[in-house]
Amino acid sequence: MQAYSSARDEFEGMAPVMLDANENSLGSVGPDNFSRYPDPHQRAIKADLATLKGVSPDQIFLGNGSDEAIDLLVRLTCTPGQDSIAICPPTYGMYEVAANLNDVRIERLPLTPDFQLPANAPAILAASQAKLVFLCSPNNPTGNLLAQEAIETILANFRGLVIVDEAYADFADAPSWITRLAEFPRLVVMQTFSKAWGLAGLRLGVAYASPALIGYLNKIKPPYNISAATQQHALAALANAPQLPEMRAELLQGREWLGAQLTQLPIVEHIFPSDANFLLVRFRVDATATYDALSSRGIVVRNRTSQPGCAGCLRLTVGTAAENVQLVQALAEIGSQNPVA
Ligand SMILES: *Cc1c(COP(=O)(O)O)cnc(C)c1O
C-alpha cells in the first residue's frame, strides 16, 4: 500500500507563510497555540531517545501509548480471519483485545505456577504458525522478569516477531532487550512513558526494532499519531531524565517497605517476587471480598482473581509512602475483622 503523504511530509519545517495544510493561521481558541500540525516523524523526541537508549533514530517507533504499537503490530503482521498471535497468560490484557478487535486468533501458552515460560514454549512456538508472540517482562500482573535463556531460545526458533514488552523495565535490575536488537532482526522491544516516567496521561509508547520493521510501522500509523502537546511534554521530560533514577529509587523503596509490611499480615498468603512497581499478592481470605472492603475505604487496587494462575490474588500498585501506609492499615483492619481460620 501507499502511505498517506501529509502536508508535513511534502514540506518539512516552517516557512514565513504556511498555507498548505488548511490550519488556522490566526491561532487557536484557548490559551495555548496549537494551530500547526505536529511533526509526523517526531524527530526531536527520537533524537533524544536514541541518545538515551543507545540506538539509532530509525530504530524507534512512537505510538499513542504502547497500546497503539500493540494494535499496529497485530495489524501489520496478521490477516484478519486467518492468522494468529501467541500470548503467555496471565499477562497484559491489551494483546488479547488487539487480536479480538482485528479478528485474529489467539494461541495461549500459559506460564508455569511461578510465572515463567514453560520448558516446552520454544518447541511449541517453533511449530506454531503464529505471526508474533507477546512476552511481557517484567510481566503484568505477576511482576517478574521472564528468564533470559527462555527468551533467547524463542528468538532463535520462532519464525514470527518476538515482542518483549518492557513497560516496567525501568524498575528491573536487568539489561533491556534493546541491547540485543542487532543480534535478532525479529525482536521488537516495547517501552512506555506511562509507568516509571509518570506520564500515563500523555499517551506515549515506544517500540524499538530493526529499521526495516520500524519503516513498516511508520507506513501504517495514523500520520499525526503523537500530538504536539505530547511531543512538547515528552521533550521536557527527556530533558529532565536525571530525575528518573530518583523517582525509581523512591518507588523501589516503597515496594520493599510494602512487601515487608504485607508479610506480617495473617491474611496474606504469598507475595510474588516483583521487578516492577506493583506486587501481586495472594490472600488466605476471599480476595474479592478484600478488594470490596478496600474499595469501600476509598482504596482501589486491581482484582486479578479470575486470571489464570492468579486465584485469590490482588495486584497492588506501589504508591506514595502515605498511600502505602493507608493500604497496609486498611488490610490489617480488614484482616482483624475476617480472622484467618
Ligand atoms: C501499563 C502497560 C503498558 C503501557 O501502555 P501505554 O499504552 O503505553 O500506557 C504496556 N504494557 C504493559 C504490560 C503494561 O502494563
Shape: globular
Distinct ligands: pyridoxal-5'-phosphate
Q: What gap, in angstroms, lies between the N and C termini?
A: 64 Å
Find the count of extended strands (DSSP E, 2+ residues).
Answer: 11
Poorly predicted sequence stretches spanning 5 or more consecutive residues: none
Biggest sheet strand order reads 1-7-6-5-4-2-3
**CATH fold-level topology of the largest domain:** Aspartate Aminotransferase, domain 2
Beta fraction: 5-15%
- Helix % is 25-40%
Q: Tally the helices: what do you get?
A: 11
- Following the backbone from N to C, one meets helices and strands in this order, namely HHEHEHEHEHEEEHHHEEHEEH
> How large is the radius of gyration?
22 Å
Write out key terms for the chains shown.
2 domains; 341 residues; globular; 35% helix; alpha/beta; 7-stranded mixed beta sheet; Aspartate Aminotransferase, domain 2; Aspartate Aminotransferase, domain 1; binds pyridoxal-5'-phosphate
Write a brief caption for the model.
The chain is of the alpha/beta class and 341 residues long.
What would your notes on this structure say?
By secondary structure, the chain is an alpha/beta fold. It folds into two domains: 37-239, Aspartate Aminotransferase, domain 2 (3-Layer(aba) Sandwich); 244-337, Aspartate Aminotransferase, domain 1. It contains eleven helices and eleven strands. The strands form two sheets. A seven-stranded mixed beta sheet has the order 1-7-6-5-4-2-3, with helices on both faces. Strands 8-9-11-10 form a four-stranded antiparallel beta sheet, covered by helices on one side. The structure holds pyridoxal-5'-phosphate. Pyridoxal-5'-phosphate binds at residues 65-67, 92, 136, 140, 165, 167, 192, 194-195, 200, 205. Residues 65-67, 92, 136, 140, 165, 167, 192, 194-195, 200, 205 line the site of pyridoxal-5'-phosphate.
